[in-house]
Backbone:
């Protein structure tokens, strides 16, 4: 059984970047799936504090990562 999506409160830009890399997703592919620019994704992944994170962008990234994970595990319906 695949892992459940990570709750948003347990996410961070560093964790999002690590998860993207573990899934083998390029910056361009994740940005496209999230509906944001590559620059926005890179800024998110390099955020140094919570104040530097755009909540809307973070949610789009989280949803896109969850979608990629479902697709690679075969659970995307």
Residues:
């Amino acid at each position: 059984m695949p892992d459940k999506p990570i709750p948003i409160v347990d996410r961070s830009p560093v964790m999002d970047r690590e998860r993207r890399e573990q899934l083998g997703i390029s910056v361009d592919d994740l940005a496209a799936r999230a509906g944001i620019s590559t620059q926005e994704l890179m800024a998110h992944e390099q955020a140094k504090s919570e104040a530097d994170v755009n909540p809307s962008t973070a949610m789009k990234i989280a949803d896109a990562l969850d979608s990629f994970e479902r697709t690679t595990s075969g659970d995307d319906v």
